[in-house]
Amino acid sequence: MNAEAVQRAVQRIAHEVLERARAQGSLERLAFVGIRRGGVPLAERIRAEIARATGSEPPLGTLDIALYRDDLAERGAAPVVGPTDVRFPLEGRTIVLADDVLYTGRTIRAALDELVDFGRPRRVWLAVLVDRGGRELPISADFAGARLEVPEGADVQVRWRENGDAEDSVVVREGRKP
Amino acid sequence: MIGRHRHLIGLEGLSREEILQVLDLAVSMKEVLSRPVKKVPSLRGKNVVNLFFETSTRTRSSFEIAAKVLSADSLNWTAAQSSTTKGETLLDTARNLEAMRPDVLVVRHSASGAPNFLARHVGCSVVSAGDGAHEHPSQGLLDCFTIRERFGSLEGRTVAIVGDISHSRVARSDLHSLPKLGAKVRLCGPPTMIPLGIERLGATVHHDLRTAVEGADAVVMLRIQHERIGDPLIPNTREYSKYWGLNAKKAAEWLKPEAVILHPGPINRGVELSSDVADGPRSVILDQVQNGVAVRMAILYLLAGGAGEDRAEKVSA
Fold first, then answer.
1. CA dist list (Å): B127 to B55, B132, B142
2. Which residue from A minimizes the CA distance to B317?
3. Per-window interface: B 182-211 vs A, CB < 8 A
4. Residues 1-40, chain B: which have Cβ within 8 Å of A?
5. DSSP string spanning chain B?
6. A3-173 architecture in CATH?
7. What is the per-residue pLDDT for A92?
């Protein structure tokens, strides 16, 4: 996906989020949480689209899931822990949890565990830019910019300008043949 | 692993990058302490044993809370209630504890070198919580963290350390860390309490409190140990307080407006610090206590968080 396709995908997700929130009457209670680092630009951009359409900007938080990983004991070194920043009460909110790529579902499991430690949201929706299949846990996206069939071992890279890349893009790199 | 290290015995062997690795991680850990649920699951199933041969409330509680916030199980073994009083050797105690499969052993001992000795004989990671007059690495790191948090960076800052430098493991850990982060260190105290040749560690020595604290960004006031009072090192507390103690009047006249005051605790009020300074606006003593938990979380996470090199190889094989 090139920058233009990424932009269209973000707009489509924002539109769907808006429709569903309106239908449920939860538009005023909407809030965004991006999973560091790839999910944060997605959350920011969906929020900006919603703000443009409605004139009010929902709150935004970021989660770093390093302390909630389930594979610590299998890794050689402890993973780097980045900042988590959720400054609004979650009670009664409809949270749009955003990540760049949905794969095994383990990151989302960790993010949900972390999120509920901040409070009890009314509901949580999951928005991802790319759903690449390959789930290992019963988790699915409510909103996906693209659904790709990517073989196991291949790598899906999402690049965002906000994270220091030259331009937005989604690149699939073939992995080693099993 | 803290950089290349499996143990944390002192800050002397740590590089600038390794110290910054702990301090940066501690920033994220401090955020966890401000959450409604102060618990993350990262060290679930890990065991931290606190082995204290010297009394300590602050440091032991701090390590204990740090372990609990990270979901590790912690066990406290204090000498007063242990078989040490029945004549068991340090190594036998450690081997018995090791048989209970801890992941980290936090050790405080009155003998310098005890944690290092244990690190060479047990299989788990060893963290020194203070040994004799050697080092108190977690205290040194939390001092760095607290000053860095206040000023954004230690680069170009001046830190004065005042008190019994000879017997202070805090002073030694501060000396082995602050200069690596770009700070200048001034040492101050009675001549009987400053070791000869300490300048070689990169500090300047002062015997006059005023010249030591004037222009400093932070002043670390060390505790005067009661057991040393009355021996030839200090004739009495009134004399010590007069020449090397800090009160509000001296602080107002000599210190920069933005300078902060640190103390490792417990404070002897009226000896090294007057109450109006200890409880005053410059005091960051209670910030140090909170930062201590965050820094110790970072230490435990780095040492117990990964599988370690040996086990990582087994998993990938």
1. 17, 14, 15
2. A74
3. none
4. 1, 25, 27-29, 31-32, 35-37, 39-40
5. -BTTBS-BS-STT--HHHHHHHHHHHHHHHHHHTSSS----TTTT-EEEEEESS--SHHHHHHHHHHHHTT-EEEEEEGGGSGGGGT--HHHHHHHHHTT--SEEEEEESSTTHHHHHHHH-SSEEEEEEETTTB-HHHHHHHHHHHHHHHS--TT-EEEEES-TTT-HHHHHHHTTTGGGT-EEEEES-GGGS-TTGGGGTEEEESSHHHHHTT-SEEEEPPPPGGGBTSTTBS-HHHHHHHH-B-HHHHHHHS-TT-EEE--S---BTTTB-HHHHTSTTB-HHHHHHHHHHHHHHHHHHHHSS-HHHHHHHHH-
6. 3-Layer(aba) Sandwich (3.40)
7. 92
B42 close to B70: Cβ distance less than 8 angstroms: yes
| CATH number corresponding to B16-134+290-305 | 3.40.50.1370
Enumerate residues 6+ apart whose C-beta is below 8 A from A26. A94, A122, A123
Domain locations in chain A as residue ranges: 3-173
Query: In a 3-state reduction of DSSP, which class is residue A91?
Result: coil
Instruction: Give the gap in angstroms from C-alpha B2 to the nearest C-alpha of chain A.
Output: 9
Summarised one tens digit per residue, pLDDT across range A4-27 is: 999 999 999 999 999 999 999 888
What's the fold here for domain B137-286?
A: Rossmann fold (3.40.50)
Quick: pLDDT tens for A104-140.
999 999 999 999 999 999 999 999 999 999 999 999 9
What are the sequence ranges of the domains in chain B? 16-134+290-305, 137-286
